[in-house]
Structure formats: C-alpha cells, structure tokens
From TrEMBL:
NADP(+) binds at residues 166-168, 233. The gene is folD. GO terms for biological process: L-histidine biosynthetic process; methionine biosynthetic process; purine nucleotide biosynthetic process; tetrahydrofolate interconversion. This is Bifunctional protein FolD. Catalyzes the oxidation of 5,10-methylenetetrahydrofolate to 5,10-methenyltetrahydrofolate and then the hydrolysis of 5,10-methenyltetrahydrofolate to 10-formyltetrahydrofolate. Homodimer. The keyword Amino-acid biosynthesis applies. Gene3D superfamilies: Leucine Dehydrogenase, chain A, domain 1, NAD(P)-binding Rossmann-like Domain.
Length: 294
C-alpha cells in the first residue's frame, strides 16, 4: 500500500494550532481576525464550500462575515460591496466565491479586491509576486495547502521532476510557480492542448492533477514510486465524490497518493485560514504566518 496523504487529519491538527494562536492574540487584547465571504447566487456546490469555510473560521476563532447576494446582483453592486470591505479596517480578508454568474466579469472583480486583503491570492499583484519570487505576496490556497502537506510528510521536492496537469489561474499556474520558486523543482505544465499527456505524466516524480475529469489518470500514466496529488473534485451521478485520478487502479504503483475526499480539499480550506491570519499578523506588526514561508 502507498502512503495515503491524509489532508483531513493534517488540516484538523493545523486548525487546533491556529485556534491556540488566535487565543494568544485575543489574550494580548487584540481584536478577532475577520474574513468576509461573498457568495453570489445559490449554486449548491458553492454553498457547501462556503459553509465549510465559515465553520472552519468559527472553529479557530476567525469572525466570518457572510454576504449572500442574489444571482441578479450586478457587477457594480458587487464592486461597491468590495470597495466598502476594502475600506473597513476590521476586515482582514475578502473572499469572493467562484464561479461568479456569467453576467459578472470575474477578472474585474478579482482586481477590485485590495491585494493586501486578497486571501485567495488571485489578484494579479499577488500572482506577479509569486511569479517573480517576491516573498510578501499571498499564495493561492490550494497550492499552499499542497505544499504544506508535502512538507509535513517529508516528501522531497528539491530537484524533482514535477508535472502539473491543468493550467488554471487558481490551481495549475500558481502550483507550477510555487515549485519553480528558488529553482526548487523542474516543472512541466500540461493542459487541454497537450499533444500526448502520458508522455509527460510518466516522467513525473510528483504529479499534480487539477482538471476535473474522473479517471483521467490511470496506472499506465504514472511512474513507479511517484507521488500523486489529486486536486479534482467530481460529483458522480450517484452523489459520490471522486478525483481526477483512478485511485484504485493507480495506488499500488505509487509511493504516496492523496485520497478524494479527504486529501487536498481540507488543506485548501486550512490555507484560507492561514492566509487570513497572515494578513492579520502583518496588520498588527507581526511577521507573516510561518506556514506561508516557502
Ligand atoms: N474564491 C474561491 N476560492 C476558492 O478556494 C474556491 C472557490 N472560490 N471556488 C471553488 C473552489 C473549490 N474549493 C474547495 C474547497 C474545499 C473543498 C473541500 O473541503 N473538499 C472536501 C469535501 C468534498 C465534498 O464533500 O464536496 C474534500 O475534498 O475532502 C473542495 C473544494 C475552493 N474553491
Ligand atoms: Mg484555491
């Protein structure tokens, strides 16, 4: 059996530590950290994710301010709310749940968030800082969560051949930039126009898959004893949630693998808390959060 990278368990351990950390700020007389969560519309999956984020905030002692806006909200109304939250000194982080309804320009919304409050790290300034190796930006939650998980399990990344499948702005691109930081690993990014996916994935010491296609990755596509990180969240017709990797088919060939659910997803949520605390720490004259140090 491979090592199962248990993101659920690790996220719970980290949340307990974050709870103690927040208690220490409160006992110094500081205010509670606060995260504003904006949800536009009523997509069922988005509602589930937002609820998870809010529950996790409450557990560690971060106030979560909910803004549940109707599907009919205009872009101008959303931009006005963001402007108000940007100017509110008691709000540390702002998260706009994606995807947004199609009548709203997502990029314009992301760029309206004060980059210092951009807990998702999606603002071009934060993406640019990650791309240029500057350490004072915010790292997107899924890549940060994966990095923390790899380090926790003492999986070596230095000089490894990493293959990232999926080139999205929220996972694939920032993940590849993180592995490239300090010239840590050799990175290949594959996407829907990659000519022969298997030629690339077969060479990966660490394979990260973030596409959204059940069973995309089978045993013939992975290298023996490699590490497989599955970011996919696919809901099947029977309600079951599976990743992009055919877990049962691949598991006996690899040395470590993340399950879905219980792998990357919970690490994404815990990274949102870490990013919120990091912003709060900087605002109160502390160093960035140690878990954001790459
Ligand atoms: N602005 C923004 N930031 C995000 O970070 C963001 C977003 N929008 N939109 C949607 C995606 C998706 N995402 C997940 C978070 C947690 C789980 C998670 O906790 N998954 C659990 C449970 C899965 C389930 O039951 O649905 C697991 O994998 O074990 C999954 C996916 C954050 N996203
Ligand atoms: Mg994310």
């Amino acid at each position: 059996m491979p090592l199962i990278l248990n993101g659920k368990e690790l996220s719970e351990t980290i949340k307990k530590e974050l709870k103690l950390e927040v208690e220490s700020y409160i006992s110094k007389g500081l205010r509670k950290p606060a995260l504003a969560v904006i949800l536009v519309g009523s997509d069922p999956a988005s509602k589930v994710y937002v609820r998870r984020k809010k529950e996790s905030c409450e557990y560690v002692g971060i106030s979560s301010l909910s803004f549940n806006l109707p599907e009919s909200t205009t872009e101008v109304e959303l931009l006005e709310l963001i402007g108000k939250l940007n100017g509110d000194d008691d709000v540390d982080g702002i998260l706009v749940q994606l995807p947004l309804p199609s009548h709203i320009n997502t990029q314009r919304v992301i760029e309206a968030i004060n980059p210092e409050k951009d807990v998702d790290g999606f603002h071009p300034l934060n993406m640019g800082k990650l791309a240029t190796g500057k350490d004072d930006g915010i790292i997107p939650c899924t890549p940060l969560g994966i990095w923390i998980m790899l380090k926790h399990y003492r999986i070596e990344t230095f000089k490894k051949d990493v293959v990232v499948v999926g080139a999205s702005n929220i996972v694939g691109k920032p993940m590849s930039l993180l592995f490239l930081k300090n010239e840590e690993a050799t990175v290949t990014v594959c996407h829907k126009n990659t000519k022969n996916l298997k030629d690339h994935t077969q060479k990966a010491d660490i394979l990260v898959v973030a596409v959204g296609k059940p069973k995309l990755i089978t045993d013939d596509m992975v290298k023996e004893n490699s590490v497989v990180i599955d970011v996919g969240i696919n809901r099947l017709e029977d309600g079951k949630i599976v990743g992009d990797v055919d877990f049962d088919n691949v598991k006996d060939k690899v040395s470590a693998i993340t399950p879905v659910p219980g792998g990357v997803g919970p690490m994404t949520v815990v990274s949102l808390l870490i990013n919120t605390l990091s912003i709060y720490r900087k605002k109160h004259g502390f160093s960035p959060h140690p878990l954001t140090e790459i």
